[in-house]
Amino acid sequence: MRKKLPILRVIRQTLDYLGDHGGRLIGASPLLILILLGGVVLGMYLNDMAYVEQSKLLELAGWMVSTAAPVLAAVAWHRCILLNETPAPRPVAGKPERMYFIVLLVSAALAFVVALLAYIVMLFSKGPAGPHWLGMVLVLLLILSPCIFLGYFFLALPHAALTGRLDLSRIAGLVKGNRLRLLAVAMLPVPLLLLLEAVRIFLLQMPRAPGVAFYLYTAISTFAFTLVSVTSMSVSYRTLALTPSEERANSSLAACSAD
Q1: Is 43 within 8 Å of 256 (Cβ atoms)?
Q2: What's the whole-model pTM score?
Q3: Nearby residues of 202 by Cβ (< 8 Å), 6 or more positions away
Q4: What own/partner pairs with CB < 8 Å and gap ≥ 24 does 142-149 have?
Q5: Number of Cβ within a 10 Å radius of residue 202
Q6: Element (H, E) at 127
Q7: Domain spans of the chain, in order of start
């Protein structure tokens, strides 16, 4: 019998874990967090330089750096939450990290292709009286299409972090019947991002313009998004991937070692 993801229980366990062990998780991986923050800042700087220099090579480099920035921290956090494995004191780029990066690249490439197709459809749907309604419907469907695949990436990432490989048939079996449930859990970081954006606009009054302040704000937002997303993905994967007996034996989420 296929498992159904209990949305409210997963959200509650995610928030409980962050409240009880989030500080310890952060304290155990300062270097990985520094790499994440620095990678995001460098990626944004390269993207801005690419715009100024009109360089596709710089744009590609910025995209690669931004995609790779969270990998080391994310894999370490997945393994800490699911295996009670303390993050290594120095960066490790093994098979789990490489597979995690590949999954992130595929998801980013898919998002780019969807955005490009939506742009092309929008161009061709324009007429003398404005965009054709059919074109607008197609654009809307393209924009919503990643929701179909989100569940696969949502579970593929923790699976890659644990095993260093990608078992598509197993992931497909876990996702089946849970697409909307996984989509709902994936929205968990959104309120936090909206809060950070409100702080930027109304409290800090910081424009979305190239500069050290905006780079740091984006890096901190990425860090917060990654931490919440990794925790929710790990809890979801634990709930769906374990057998009932294993789940009972691991009913309380493992805490990172304090050592």
Answers
A1: no
A2: 0.89
A3: none
A4: 142/114, 142/117, 142/118, 143/114, 143/118, 145/114, 146/110, 146/111, 146/114, 147/179, 147/183, 148/179, 149/107, 149/110
A5: 8
A6: strand 126-127
A7: 14-246
Show the tokens assigned to 207. 């424009």
DSSP code for 242: S
Site of tokens 């009670």: 84
Nearest 5°: the CA angle 200, 203, 206 is: 40
| pLDDT tier at 201, thresholds 50, 70, 90 | very high
Please name the residue that has the structure tokens 């593929």.
Answer: 156
Q: Is 250's pLDDT higher than 80?
A: no
Q: Which token pair is 202? A: 């109304």
10 half-sphere exposure, CB direction, 13 A CA radius: 26
**Could you tell me the two tokens for 55?**
């360089």
259 Cβ contact list (under 8 Å, min separation 6): 86
DSSP string, 134-200: HHHHHHHHHHHTHHHHHHHHHHHHHHHHHHSS--HHHHHHHHTT-HHHHHHHHTTTHHHHHHHHHII
Residue 183 · residue 151 · CB < 8 Å: yes
